[in-house]
Queue: 4 jobs
Job 1
Amino acid sequence: MPTLQWDAELATVAATNARRCIYGHDECRSTVRFPYAGQNIGLFSYYALTFTVTELITDFINDWYSEYTLTTPAFLAKHPRGYHGPDIGHFTQIVSDRTNRIGCSLVTYYDTTWINQYFVCNYALINLIGQPVYVAGIACSKCTTGCSVKYPGLCNTNEIVIAKP
């Protein structure tokens, strides 16, 4: 499994979506380097409360990751066509072994009553229908550049990952 690394280009494209202040996946997130970019989005609206940026981002990511409880081994082995079950795409996007780049943006905007926090993350590769989300196995066993020292169990950051189907 590759180590997920920050990518400024993906973050810039995510910011373009977030600054629209319209909740929804955009259709213009692909770039020359990432022609099949994936995306997770989240919106949190509240009033009379305060949150740090770290709290907000942690909550968004934890919420996406918590979808693992709804995911089945069969789904992880082969992303099905025409899936109509509970939301699990945020989780599968985070844990895909075919993406190693991420860029995110958090935008705050206000309407008459609410403070809105809109969080957008773009990934090097989208979830692919009919493909495994990741291939299970011994940690680092498929890493051609060795294991990460900082994140044991993940591949070294020099691992080459081709972000194409």
Job 2
Amino acid sequence: MTALSPTVPDSALAPFLDRRFQRLQGLRPIFRRLFPDRVALDFTVVIITYNGAQRVGAVLDRLRCQIGVDDLSWEIIVVDNNSSDDTQAVIQRYQANWPAAIPLRYEFEPQQGTGFARQHGIEVANSPLVGYLDDDTLPWINWIRSAYLFGQQHPDVGVFGSRIRGKFAIAPPPNFERIAAFLALTERGATPIPYSPEAKILPPGAGLVVRRQAWLENVPTVLTLSQKFGARDAGEDLEVVLRIQQAGWPVWYNARMLLYHEIPDSRLTRQYLVTLCKGIGLSRYHTRMLSFAAWQRPFMVLPYAANDIKKIIRHMLRYRHQVITDTVTASEMMLYAASLVSPIYSWYRIWNTLCQSMGNKISETTHQKLSARLFKRTVAQR
């Protein structure tokens, strides 16, 4: 009769397994250097740049100096969004002197638009967490560590945004804080908090960290807002975050992820700010309707229009002549007016696209018929 070996309780094995796991985790940086294609990464930084040869170097310098990342395996991907300057040459110079433990990759996205560049970045990333930086956003020295830890501590969160402060070339206009969010400046306190779906407020694309699984499962390859509205990419970042949030993934604000957004004097002029608010307003119809089913959308146009009219009247009564004389007040007025006409503008764009598509098909059919007739005549003459 064979003797049975005594069973070891799970509670006794737990400390031993934890120590083994910690030792294996400590060896990950070594394995990453020896087998770069076989060890999963912890974090990916994607830098979106367009003609950023003079700016992107400062972002890379900040990333080179990150602290608390010695035990992490991470990479940097620079997505060149169809630049016409020396951006690629700048990245190549950095690659020649870059630490071997941190892969620095260059990717080219020929389709113009932030949405296309961000989609490219998520597709080529090699980690479950992807953090997006623009070429004018400077991360604080612990940004990567803070982002990674937050992602590990909150595995159910699909998207979390940064705390973004402005680094102004000149003093902003009076009352600038009222429209600061339109320049991706985010200050929501010193502690992490969730973005409630009912509040209709979402983090900007700069400094955004996304769980790759949540993006790939819920965000289409070509966004609805991939076209430009005015002089601004039409809310593609909002569409990405909104689709992930609607799929059930919570969206949070992480105050420990600090960024500084460099804002040149050209972005603080009256012309730029008014045009910026116009572009945001014209995209409002699309961003609003994303929250509703297709059959509900026609019924929501009038309530939103009534609310926009109320905002316009209240704004004019409150500020009177400042609607014309004050830069911030005029920008807000343009936002409300553009939001009011955004359904008409969107329908016009859809109609124009359909007409162009039909025209192209008619032209193609006509061309084919003419080619066939010409071919028949040539054969008959022979």
Job 3
Amino acid sequence: MPTSSRPHDLMQLLTRAERTAARRLQAVLDEEGCSLDAWRVLALLSDGRGHHMTGIAEAVFLPPPTLTKLVDHLVDQNLVHRRVDPLDRRRILAHLTPRGQEYWRRVDRAVRADWPTLTDADGELLRTLLDRLAETLDARVTHT
């Protein structure tokens, strides 16, 4: 039977995978004193390019007020700092501090050491299929 006619089964699998992965990840993050939401923000900022708050909120699936509180907390910990965007002085970009970069490397090593590995082919296939599913669902939402 095609997957499209059995959305419940697909949702069950997606939910099971997400919850299992989040529990496993959170156990590692707890040892490092990091929340799952903070990990997502740090991962995004680890590219070194700086990101504006709206873009971060969208990328990490947090409402803007929640993200602001989280980033304030990361700033208080000297893991993140805010800078004026040199291309648009009205915008503020968030960056990792040197301490934040070090913390990110430590947390990332711990996560990678515990994370189950898929073959390169399986990992790429999974990413491709999940991306395709997300795009298909997004397209249906925008057309309704």
Job 4
Amino acid sequence: MTIPYTEDTDMKDRIMVIFTGGTIGSRMSGNVIDVHQDTRYELLEQYSRLEDSRPFEMDTLQPLQVLSENMTPDNWLELLAALDQMDRSPYAGIIITHGSDTVPYTAAMLSYTASHYGLPIVLVASNQPLGHPRSNGLRNFAAAVDFIADADIPGVYVSFENERGDHAIYLGTRITEALPFNDQFDSPYGVPFGRVVDGIFVPDQHEVHPEVAELRAVREPAADLRRVRFSTKVMYIRPFPGLNYALYDFRSARPDAVLHGVYHSATASSFTSERYSSSITGFAAYCREHGVPLYVAPAKGQGSALYRSADEFMRAGILGLPKIGMEAALVKLMLAYGTCDTEEERSAFLGRNIFYEHHEGGSW
């Protein structure tokens, strides 16, 4: 479907819209929400009827159609193949419609593999199906179009309206999972990269955000797309009081790596209980015995003050991934352990700040 372009402009007049399913591509039948083929046309038709719609021609692709909770690394490879094989030269930008459950992970994946394409790639999700009166899907799509048209900043982003009605734009590596009860996304420092206000992109001036000029700089590919694979043997552990590490038994299935989360103060329990395996340092020793690297994220930056427990587990040989959110860290590990052939190559990849996943300049 196309929305006719009628104005003279120096900017490219086309946007590629890639549909992948998710809530924004779903319909409700009774009390069941599921993906539906026709919703892609509904979204574009609804957008074309807006008084302030932009006069872009919209081309479409649909390489996959899944509810995002069912998104897999194989689906990521399908999406990457579609992006890599298309002729991107006619387009001002690319919009990818995606389910809200896993959009932070897909956004991080694209940030590591497609942020060098030289045009904005904006993921758009919805809190409800398009036909629902509370759905923000159309507004999120409209804000993505406005961002492409007004900002013209290459890279990977997510457009999602928050509960205050702000049309937030997040960097692809700096968006955290939505909360279950209010469907709200966040970013590690609590501020998005910017907002779309009356069709104009307004960057947030927080100290951790990159300058727009940095984002416009030419970037080299971080990985050879012909070699890109994602390990499905990366384990994630979240700390909580009573976490018993004895429940993790590597004898039947050995992970490639373990990512361990931390509390907000960059800590995890180093207490040794007499009743159960409670210490992360003890778990680190178990991982070493089985040849499994243990990472923590986000780790404090070099020179930052640490609580004693954090100092203890860092001294125990646990590998810190500094200043990076969990979602971005997990995807980066999956990519590193799926693609890199050597430990040296993996270490260099994990240490590289590919698309601002490392929050430089902040207090962490």
